[in-house]
Specification:
The chain is of the alpha+beta class and about 700 residues long. The chain has 14 helices and 29 strands. The strands form 6 sheets. Strands 1-11-10-3-8-7-6 form a 7-stranded mixed β-sheet, with no helix packed on it. Helix 7 packs antiparallel against helix 8. The longest helix is centred in the C-terminal third of the chain and has 25 residues. The two termini are about 50 Å apart.
Length: about 700
């Protein structure tokens, strides 16, 4: 791998023979786990400008250049997270001479607050070619990490590391993106929550509030009189955008800029039509029936055929699944039960994916498992050998399991004597469902029939008989480890504890996929480890903590929420705890802060635990049921300054073993869903979110 310095450039063809398609990853880590940034890509012509606003690729316009550039989304790593972008360089329009890759932060955040800013470029087989570390990002809210550009018909890469103090809006404008500077009414319509707290506190104390504001402390937030000039504040979480709406990031405190785009989306209506069925026993006819499935083999065959057929019929979906595997953006065909010669007897992979672009073929063999069945190393090895002999590019495994960094699901021997290299990729059924959810519920697809097809696929995957339910089994070590914790016989260094840690990590990643698909937001596990930490060493340290404390712990960062969601499974008490720490309002009297929090939690469960956080420790605590009539009970008696509140819900852990989904996995899913739905969703969001902007045609 070539390590580059700022300003250096290199030809891609000198690094690998497989650079027709490449994947670029932008990564960073954060000491708090809350750092985030959004990736943007600009396609420029020979004059260094976009040809039109459609050449501006960002998180709500993730595919540009006729499918040659696609944002693949964020993925957790052992030391933070990475945002990946797929480039089919052979398919980039001829008018595009340069591709700029940038990232931006919002809400006043700066890149200097993040650690280990880095860019990695990999070829279509997954081998890393280039690494570039941005060392001096500083106090900027947008940064150009690198660029791809043509020279004499060949593609080269340049390490840039250029910061933009003017943010993404300034960067985009410099490259010719049309920015509409009209003021956004939403900013001026909202009042500052902290100012409300001041007015409320002054009313409580009998003081006359400053300025023209008036009203009582008992009035709801934002309704205490009529301000002449309301102070701007961070907008509340925006509802899901309707079809045609484009969201663009912005970090400016001035009225939000709007990015114009001609791109339109078609999505399914959010409200279901009233059914014509006479009663609940009538079942809707489905494109993919499940009633005839009798055994695992039939489930694997049906699931493979259903998925591959939808991939060919819905281009956005098929491209999304294959772009990260190095496939080009071209015409796709899929096949099932293909017979391929291998020694004395032919082999039959579950499926084959072929993509044709400009007369060139990209081919991947597919091996599928359902219902929690494990991949068989000998099968995957055989398909890898066949692919190498026949010049195929990849083998894709698909199962309910979730792959982890540094822990391959299947160990495959690679014959170094062969010039042709085959890439081995893994896809979980949970990720397939996540991508379908994101397209039909949040991002949209270009055809209503395609959206209907995706909905039928999603119904199939989520049906209890499909066998495509995602990670289902905590593994053979789960029950022995729990018993050893009860008996206090689990000692550090026990390999069974490491197996449980790996299963827990897989479960948490699946929870992130499910919740992210439902919300349409990024949901990622928080990794606080420094860059360079070996994944196996990190899991071994967590296993030692499990042995000594008897607890499994993880944290999730959910976009648009005021804090980190923590999940703790105490194997000694058999309880799950979901919690979040929310900061107190920066201004206002302590009682005002307590009342504000209780009002936000009006619909929360009565058994919600609330704990006051003060500098250097914790203060009073109590259940919501007890605090509703007496919010003052949560205030520190010694007058200590309140820094925030910790909100927690407790739930009993499920039990179970075997190949079916265990009660423990269900209980974790239910605990996270309940906590987000009834607690987090009602909390006021602090800090600027990425705003919503409408395209020019929609206004």
């Amino acid at each position: 791998m070539q390590k580059m310095i700022k300003g250096a450039n290199i030809g891609l063809a000198s690094l690998s023979d497989n650079v027709g398609s490449v994947v670029m990853s932008l990564g960073w880590s954060s000491p708090t786990g809350e750092g985030d940034a959004d990736v943007s890509v600009l396609l420029l012509d020979g004059d260094g400008k976009v040809r039109g606003d459609a050449d501006f690729c960002f998180y709500n316009n993730p595919v540009v250049g006729n499918g040659s550039v696609q944002l693949l989304g964020k993925t957790p790593t052992s030391d933070g997270e990475e945002d990946r972008i797929s480039f089919d360089l052979d398919a980039v329009p001829a008018e595009v001479e340069q591709i700029v890759v940038a990232a931006s932060r919002y809400g006043g955040a700066r890149f200097g607050d993040l650690d280990d800013l880095r860019l990695t470029l990999a070829d279509s087989s997954g081998d890393s070619l280039v690494q570039f570390s941005v060392e001096d990002a500083g106090a900027v809210s947008a940064c150009v990490f690198g660029e791809l550009y043509r020279r004499d018909g060949a593609w080269k890469f340049r390490a840039v590391g250029q910061g933009y103090a003017s943010g993404l809006a300034g960067l985009a404008t410099d490259f010719g993106v049309d920015i509409d500077d009209d003021a956004d009414a939403d900013v001026e319509a909202d009042a500052d929550a902290a100012a409300d707290a001041d007015v409320e506190a002054e009313a409580e104390s009998g003081k006359e509030p400053d300025g023209p504001r008036g009203g009582s402390a008992d009035e709801p937030d934002g309704q205490a009189g009529s301000p002449a000039v309301p102070a701007p504040r961070a907008p509340e979480p925006a509802p899901a955008a309707p079809a045609g709406t484009v969201r663009t990031p912005s970090e400016e405190t001035k009225p939000r800029a709007r990015t114009r785009t001609a791109r339109k989306k078609v999505t399914l209506p959010r409200a279901e039509k009233k059914t014509l069925a006479e009663n609940d026993s009538w079942r809707t006819a489905r494109l993919f029936p499940l009633s005839a499935l009798k055994n695992d083999r039939e489930r694997e065959t049906r699931a493979t055929s259903v998925l591959l057929s939808v991939m060919t019929q819905v281009p956005e979906f098929g491209r999304r699944l294959t772009a990260g595997f190095g496939a080009p953006a071209g015409r796709m065909e899929t096949f099932t039960e293909v017979s391929l010669p291998h020694g004395d007897s032919p082999r039959r992979p579950d499926g084959v994916i072929r993509v044709e672009r400009a007369g060139k073929l990209w081919t991947a063999l597919v091996e599928t498992k359902t219902n929690g069945n494990a991949l068989k190393p000998d099968q995957v090895q055989a398909y890898t050998d066949i692919a190498a002999r026949r010049g195929y590019e990849a083998v894709i495994t698909l199962s309910n399991d979730v792959a982890l960094d540094g822990t391959p699901l299947v160990d495959v021997r690679i014959d170094g004597r062969r010039k042709h290299k085959v890439a081995l990729w893994h896809l979980s059924w949970a990720e397939v469902a996540h991508q379908a959810q994101m397209l039909i519920r949040h991002e949209g697809v270009g055809n209503a029939s395609h959206a209907w097809l995706l909905r039928e696929l999603l119904h199939y995957l989520q049906h209890e008989h499909s066998g495509c339910h995602g990670f289902q089994n905590m593994g053979a070590a789960w029950v022995p480890v729990r018993k050893a914790i009860d008996d206090e016989t689990l000692s550090q260094g026990d390999p069974r504890a490491t197996e449980v840690i790996e299963s827990w990590e897989r479960l948490v990643r699946q929870v992130c996929l499910g919740l992210g698909g439902e919300l349409g937001h990024k949901v990622l596990p928080v990794q606080r480890a420094k860059r360079g930490t070996d994944p196996r060493a990190r899991r071994a340290a967590l296993a030692d903590q499990l042995c000594s404390q008897g607890r499994l712990h993880s944290e999730l960062r959910i976009e648009g929420t005021p804090g980190i969601l923590a999940i703790t499974a105490d194997l000694r008490t058999r309880k799950l705890r979901t919690s979040i720490e929310v900061p107190a309002a920066e201004r206002g009297y302590p009682l005002s802060r307590a009342k504000r929090l209780i009002r936000q939690l009006a619909a929360a469960p009565a058994d919600l635990h609330i704990e006051t956080l003060v500098e250097g420790g914790t203060g009073p605590r109590g259940t919501l049921e007890r605090l509703r009539p007496e919010p003052a009970d949560i205030l520190p008696k010694d007058g200590a300054e309140i820094s925030g509140f910790r909100l927690s819900l407790f739930k009993g852990m499920g039990n179970g073993r075997g190949n079916a989904e265990t009660g423990f996995i269900r209980s974790v899913d239910e605990a996270v869903d309940r906590f987000h739905t009834h607690v987090i969703a009602h909390l006021e969001t602090r800090g600027t979110r990425r705003p919503t902007a409408e395209p020019a045609e929609a206004r």
